[in-house]
Amino acid sequence: MPNWIITAIAAGLAAAAMQGAVLSFLPVSIIAFYLSPLPLFLVGFSRGWASAALGTVVMAVALALLTGSLGFSLTAVVSAGLAPIVASMLSMITRSPGTASQEGEARTDDREWYPEGRLVLWLAAIAALVTSISVLTMGADMASYKAFITSFVDPLIAVFEKKMPPGQPPFPKDNFIAMMITVLPIAASSIWLLVTVTSMRLAIVILSRTKRALRPWALFDQLAFPKNSVIAVLASLAAAYFLSGIPQLLALGAVGAFVTAFTLLGLAIVHNMLANSPARLLLLGLLYGGLLLFNWLLALPLTVLGLIDLNFNFRKSKTNQS
After folding, report:
1. Does pTM top 0.70 for this prediction?
2. Distance between CA 256 and CA 233 in Å, rounded?
3. What's residue 270's pLDDT?
4. What is the pLDDT of residue 322?
């Protein structure tokens, strides 16, 4: 049996185990669940997209047999398998070197490789797709979608209200549910993109250090987007503003995905700015800690920084590769 098939099967079984771990409801299982695309990225970037595709099929079959749920299996294909297949396929595109690197792409003597920034944008588009499928699964119209959200929120509110001191005003349940309806698509697409990009970057670092990557990869601090990528942000914002009902929720999912992509771009710029700082590890540690604690308060300026970078290149061209 060819080696790429064996590694694909192993990766698919590993991804299935990581996906299935969420059914144990243990805190550590959440981390395993979110990193389930990692084995598929590893085989995709080291053996090719066909290996990632076979691994995804193996994962789906294993989950269907273990859980008895075809829905859970198909959800895993979309949420964990689609991104590694698409990314590993696109990553092998090359072109003859131009006069200057425009998007931070890795280069060899005779080729320029597909830029990592464009891969992130593709993952953002997949994040919007995954979120759209999730929203439509919850409800095809606003009434059913709201009923689905309410069924999950009601028990939590009931527990909270029991612990409220006597004499307190009632919990603003309707306002909270309305907020959840709006925020959920944004949060879902943002979280999916963050954990998927994390899996992709981990795979890149592991394969680069073990010299098993099919192609060279640029450093994270060289991440760059094409200038016209701002259209995705503006279009999704406009759609979210002008549309209503379920279409608006789908647009909000796209907003969360593409805004988060530019947050990652801003983070890459900060990495680059601190490259020669003796306090780099401390400052980056504080930044990441702040992002975990304060989230959008720090993510917003990073997003703005990423958007500004489209017209003002804050980084000098580097040839280092991870």
Report:
1. yes
2. 9
3. 93
4. 43
Close Cβ partners of 261 (under 8 Å, ≥ 6 residues apart): 120, 121, 123, 124, 193, 225, 229, 306
What 3-state class would DSSP assign to 109? Answer: coil
pLDDT tens for residues 45-62? 999 999 999 999 999 999
Residue 63 CA, chain-centre distance (Å), reads 22
Reading the block at residue 127, the tokens are 């994040």
Q: Which of 240, 32, 242 is nearest to 128 (CA)?
A: 240
Q: What distance in Å separates the CA atoms of residue 248 and residue 225, rounded to the nearest whole number?
A: 26
Closest among 121, 124, 146, 125 to 135, alpha carbons compared: 146
* Cβ atoms 142, 246 nearer than 8 A: yes
Stretch 24-44: mean pLDDT:
88
Judge contact between 113 and 104, C-beta under 8 A.
no
pLDDT in the model for residue 319 = 41
Per-residue tokens: 194? 């963050």
Q: Given this model, what pLDDT does residue 101 score?
A: 55
Closest CA to 28 of 13, 39, 17: 17
E strand spans, 171-312: none
What is the distance between the alpha carbons of residues 43 and 213, in angstroms, rounded to a whole number? Answer: 9
pLDDT at 288: 86
Q: Provide the 10 A C-beta neighbour count for residue 210.
A: 10
> What is the residue extent of each domain of the chain?
1-90
- Give yes or no for a contact between 96 and 111, defined as CB atoms under 8 angstroms apart: yes
Nearest one of 208, 222, 213, 224 to 319, comparing CA atoms: 222
CB-facing half-sphere around the CA of 60: CA atoms within 13 A: 17
What is the C-alpha separation between 306 and 314, in angstroms, rounded?
10
Burial class (CB in 10 A: 0-12, 13-18, 19+), 150: middle
